Amino acid sequence: MNKNAIALPSLKGDTKLPVILNRSELKELFAAPFLLKQRIVLTLIYSAGLRGQEVINLKLGDVDLERKTIHIRQSKYKKDRIVPLSEVMVVGLKKYLSAEHPHIWLFNGKDGGQYSVRGLSWVMREALKKTQIQKKVNLHSLRHSYATHLLEDGLNIVTVKDLLGHSEIGTTMIYLHVAQCERLTPHSPLDTLYGRR
Q1: Which of 85, 109, 120, 128 has the fewest other C-beta atoms within 10 Å?
Q2: What distance in Å separates the CA atoms of residue 139 and residue 46, rounded to the nearest whole number?
Q3: Rounded-to-integer distance, Cα 154 and Cα 90, Å
Q4: Could you give the CA distance from residue 164 to residue 114 in angstroms, rounded to a whole number?
Q5: Torsion angle in degrees (nearest 10) through CA of 151, 155, 160, 161
Q6: DSSP type of residue 131
Q7: Using an 8 Å Cβ cutoff, are 90 and 68 in contact?
Q8: Rounded Cα distance, 110 and 100, in Å
Q9: Residues with Cβ < 8 Å from 95, sequence gap 6 or more?
């Protein structure tokens, strides 16, 4: 074994690695639904790493388009958290809000009440049927892809843990087993301090 290699924490029992959609697959998926609302809801789940229950619980006041934040209230483990809202998502949400005029909930169901997780899962399944994606994925795969892509973009694991709302770092560690992270060349921080790298 390479003495410079970093050993990943071992997986407990018969833990399955999450299936991750690559960036091309995500673009294909987000373009698949005919309805704007369906495109927006799938894109939002990925863009903020939301659980299905979290996205249906979002109220209009939980999304701050100016500050580019989403306030997730009393999610799993009864914790609140704030996650960044993508600039691309702000544009999409503005278009959606002006077209749909939802009230109370960010995404209303057919009867004007809350959307359901079952409804979200149906949207995901129907969108997948219109794509060439062969992977066995579901709604939660969007959250797995979010976490993995953040790690691949260079974000540290502790920040990813907080963004996901995990109570234990061990839960987040599984994404290190699927992320394709580039190793940085060893360097002195003095070089980056003066922009010499």
Answers
A1: 109
A2: 9
A3: 23
A4: 23
A5: 100
A6: S
A7: yes
A8: 12
A9: 36, 40
Phi, psi (degrees; rounded to nearest 5) at 132: -95, 10
Q: Which active-site residues does the annotation give?
A: 51, 76, 140, 143, 166, 175
Q: Which of 31, 6, 41 is nearest to 120 (CA)?
A: 41
CA pair distance 56, 54, nearest whole angstrom: 6
Q: Could you give the CA distance from residue 88 to residue 11 in angstroms, rounded to a whole number?
A: 35
- The helix/strand count (H/E) of the chain reads as 9, 3
Q: What is the pLDDT of residues 32-89, one digit of tens each?
A: 999 999 999 999 999 999 999 999 999 999 999 999 999 999 877 778 999 999 999 9
pTM: 0.86
70: exposed, middle or buried (Cβ count in 10 Å: 0-12, 13-18, 19+): buried
From CA 82, how far away is CA 72, in angstroms rounded? 6
Query: Which CATH superfamily includes the segment(s) 23-177?
Result: Intergrase catalytic core (1.10.443.10)
**Residue 71 DSSP one-character state:** E
Which residue reads 């969108």 in tokens? 127
Q: Give phi and psi for 24, each to the nearest 5.
A: -65, -40
Token couple for 30: 């987000």
